[in-house]
Structures are given as structure tokens and as C-alpha cells.
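Lab meeting, item 3. Inverse folding demo.
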């Protein structure tokens, strides 16, 4: 096989059909699902994907490595269920895979991310390059339970095409992800020795807003840029607040407010 597409899922029925349709050109699609209770698994299998169901949830990084270990293609494309490969990018990927002497061992792809009705052009979201296409054996995901990244071993270049990232279709998704991701990142940070206080939580939230809205030119994204800056501030504030709360519940010393 030349190209394997890998992705992890849980209750992605609303996303998975369009996602898999955008990578139908691949020789193999591997989906690792962690206990979906909707029709995610059925839809994925109907689309021709090989689905592996796991009873546990080890975190984003380890779960993606499970999918990577199951891939058999010489090249691997990692994609999330809320992402779409554009036709132009698909042609570029196929050309890389078919080449006898590709320019690199791994390639970064630019993402255009959607926030509650609009693709964000600034606010720190664009340009947004992520390493996603690579030779199997030349890259692996970190073991982070959240905010994992792909570490490539070899030459890395950028593709010209872009993928679409429907990260937040509505504000209910924003609130849900702010809560879940701040909890996971707080647990991860605390386990690695990070400590915080209420004062630090406020300062980090304030700085996240300033960075997004002013330094990253979020104000040029209009009302959506303002809303994004506020949700970034919330995410940072809750992350540090939860680190502090873990310390309180754990009976361990933490920073004073």
C-alpha cells in the first residue's frame, strides 16, 4: 500500500462521513474508535475504513500512535474527524506519494479553521501549519494526553494546499471543548509538576486575551475575533484554575493567590 490515512474518533457521526469522503483517494483508512455510542463506527465501516475499537482512553497522543501502529502504507496521512482535505491538496498529496524521490520525509499542511460561522484569518489561527503527511517510521506522536504533536525524524517541507478545519460549528462546542481540554491539560500539567493559583489563572487568562485580540491581530477578524479571544482567555483561565484546584484537593502545597 502507498498511502494510509489514520484518525481517532469518539461520537463523530456528524463529522466522519464528510471527513472520510475527502480522503477517499487513500489506499487504506484506519479509524481507531474509543467507545462511540452513536453511528460513528457504522458510518466509517460503510465508507470502507478499517475500524479498531478500543475499550480504554489513554489520551490523544497514545491513541493516535495506536492508529499509526496499525497503518500499513509506506506513507501516512493523519487527519482529525473535523478536518477535510481539499481536492487541490489531495492532488498534491497523491503526487508526493507517487514520487520516487520526494522532497522530504514529512510535510506540513496549512489549516483554515472555522469558528462559529467563519474561517478565521488571524487571531493566531492563521497561518497554522501542522505536520500530517509523513513516511511511516519517520514520525511519531508525543505521549501527551491532550495537545499532542507529531515529531518528525528527517527532512520536513511544506505543501502548498490547505485543509479545512471545522473546529467549532457553534458556541456550545466552544464551551464543551474549553471545559474538557482545560481539565485534561490541567491534569497533564499538574502531573508534570506545574502548580498555580487563582491569581495566576487570572493573569494567564488576561494575557491569552491580549495575545489573541491585539498581538495576533484578532480585532481584524471582527466580532468573531473578539469572541475567539474571549474563549481563549476562558480556556487559559480555567486551565490554571483547575491546576490550583487539583492541588487543593490533593492536599499538596500550591502557589498563593
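The presenter then showed the designed sequence:
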Amino acid at each position: 500500500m502507498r498511502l494510509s490515512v489514520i484518525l481517532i474518533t469518539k461520537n463523530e457521526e456528524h463529522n466522519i462521513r464528510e471527513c472520510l469522503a475527502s480522503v477517499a483517494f487513500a489506499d487504506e483508512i484506519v479509524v481507531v474508535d474509543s467507545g462511540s455510542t452513536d453511528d460513528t463506527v457504522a458510518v466509517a465501516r460503510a465508507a470502507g475504513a478499517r475500524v479498531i475499537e478500543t475499550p480504554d482512553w489513554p489520551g490523544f497522543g497514545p491513541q493516535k500512535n495506536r492508529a499509526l501502529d496499525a497503518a500499513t502504507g509506506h506513507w501516512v496521512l493523519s487527519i482529525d474527524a473535523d478536518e477535510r482535505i481539499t481536492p487541490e491538496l489531495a492532488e498534491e498529496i497523491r503526487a508526493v506519494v507517487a514520487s520516487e524521490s520526494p522532497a522530504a520525509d514529512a510535510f506540513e499542511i496549512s489549516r483554515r479553521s472555522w469558528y462559529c460561522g467563519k474561517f478565521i484569518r488571524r487571531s493566531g489561527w492563521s497561518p497554522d501549519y501542522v505536520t500530517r503527511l509523513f513516511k511511516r517510521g519517520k514520525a511519531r506522536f508525543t505521549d501527551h494526553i491532550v495537545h499532542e504533536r507529531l515529531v518528525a525524524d528527517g527532512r520536513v517541507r511544506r505543501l502548498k494546499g490547505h485543509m479545512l478545519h471545522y473546529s467549532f460549528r457553534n458556541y456550545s462546542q466552544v464551551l464543551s471543548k474549553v471545559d474538557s481540554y482545560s481539565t485534561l491539560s490541567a491534569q497533564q500539567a499538574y502531573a508534570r509538576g506545574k502548580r498555580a493559583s487563582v491569581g495566576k489563572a487570572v493573569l494567564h487568562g488576561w494575557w491569552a486575551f491580549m495575545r489573541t485580540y491585539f498581538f495576533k491581530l484578532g480585532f481584524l477578524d471582527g466580532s468573531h475575533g473578539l469572541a475567539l479571544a474571549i474563549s481563549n482567555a476562558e480556556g487559559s483561565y480555567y486551565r490554571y484554575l483547575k491546576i490550583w484546584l487539583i492541588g487543593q484537593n490533593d492536599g499538596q502545597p500550591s502557589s498563593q493567590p
